[in-house]
Amino acid sequence: MTSIQRHLGISLSIGILVLWLSAAVISSLIVRHELDEAFDSALQEAAQRLLSIAALHTDDPEFTAQDEDSSAATYQRSIRLSDHAELLTYVVRDHKGNILLISHDADLDTFPEETWVGFRTSPTHRLYAEQATAPGIGITIADPLAHRREAWLEVISALVVALPLLILMSFGLVWFIVRRSMHSVHAVRSQIESRSGTNLAPLDADDLPTELSPIAASVNHLMDRLRRALESERSFASNSAHELRSPIAGALAQTQRLVAQLPEGDHRSRAREIEASLAGIAKLSEKLMQLARAESGALLSTETADLFSVIKLVLDEFDRAGEGAKRLHFQCQGAQRFMTRLDPDGMGILLRNVVENALKHSPTASRVDIVVKSDANEIRVINRGAVVPPADIESLRMRFVRGSAKASGAGLGLAIVEAVTQGSDISVELNSPATGYKDGFEVRLKSRSRVVKT
Amino acid sequence: MRILLVEDYEQLGDAVQQQIAGDGHAVDWMRSISDAESCLATTPYELVLLDLMLPDGRGIDLLKQLRRKGSSVPVIIITALDQISDRIAGLNAGADDYLIKPFDLSELSARVAAVGRRYAQNPNPLITLGDLTIDSANRSVARDGRTIDLTSREWTLFEALLRRPNRPLSKAALEESLYAFGDEIESNTIEVHISRLRKKIGKQAIQTVRGVGYRIGSVAAND
Q: Which residues of chain B make contact with A278, given a CB cutoff of 8 A?
């Protein structure tokens, strides 16, 4: 998973580092060039000045005497004023190449003997030579390259020493700016994260930067469409159930009246078959509508609530309707409480289907246990009967799959249970044999919602 | 019992009316809230079967209005609204029972009888009256283990008296239990039914309270 903040931070930091290093290299090259120009200019100026002074002394007997003698040992050293490191050294020669004047630290090996004008660079020195046509003397002045390198290195050192600190400060600044800039992105992200099938409230886009406003507007537009589509789907599922029930109820009731009025015989038998078919249609349509409502997400709630009263109400309805009379055994371990984020209708549909399934797929007159464990926040519905092979257990969650070929029903009970709990805080565990038994089947509904201790 | 049925779906209303009338009750069938209000204002019903989605409003509003006025008439909601929240809302509004469409007519009959018993403050369907054993759930009367056959009218009349043991019930009140609006009532119908009933269950079971009506003696619930 990539992070824009991390990517921006690293990319900008590397970019700044490369720019800093490039700038440092280019600066050092420019500095070196400028230093060379300055040193060369100083070298040239010094040579010209010294040559002018030397030319004034060409009539001096000492210069003449030397010229006559032309001995290399007789040339004059310039006056040593005090001990000092001499960076610039020079040699003044006459037109024959005889040395007239030499700086006291000069090394003659540094100075070529031929006559030339301008700059030259030897392995160790930068040289400049100048000639005076009258009285025919020339000067060669040398500047050690080590001196220039030292000056350049000092400049580079100053840059390099400051560089790590500047880079670190740049990294910190980049990280801080990126983090601050990403604040709005994080705000939008957390708002979108908090949205779900049960929370489609529009995003708060008032203080968002111009780059993010269109995104928030698009998301809000999308969520509005989604909300309307979901409401329409939920309303359709709910209204369809209502609209279907009345005509089916009318047809079933009229058929039952017909059965009651007909004498025993073929006609009554047929009327009974119609009655059974209508009852089957009523049951199937009810199951399909429950499935449609569950799949539309209409049975989820945004808030956790205690739905223990719904459990009692559903079991009470079984009792009143005579369904499974005296077969249902309810037990509550701990406080009377079951916390979940299903809405009451979802809880009702969930438990009704599980209990119906248990009654249907167990021997007639056998007991069905409904155990609520408040501390564990779970409901166990246990029925007796043959063990379901492990390979078949998971397939029971699929639609139109019956646990037993002999049992009646549409094979939708556990598929509805699966659909109701999809996206909710309740997990469904199917066990056969039931926990603590050698046979039977167990459905364990465990809610992940936190139990608040009172 | 005199029962008000409020249901706008013709086929269902017709079947329910026939079923309840077949059980010996007097049923007035209304198809709207306004008609139901008129009936309730003039007739002392013993039970209301109320649909929730009606053409001119919601049945639950009629129920709330009844309870606000202090009426304690038992109400069974019969509706296509099947959600737990609807049921809770109905029961909270003061309904005594809730039946979801489609339902079995025999279940409706059983619920009607159960609500009737609850309001007679005798929820146990097995009671004894002298040497008679009465099972109001199965609408049967037996003496010494032998069943006594009663017509639905006779049973309804007997049941009306059983709901108020030791208290006289006027002839008019008994007529209310037996006949709905529009039924033709002859002046001596109640006397005829009482006479036939006495022949079947014994003369001493129903006493005449001169100038007032009829009554039965103490009944006891069976274990």
A: 102
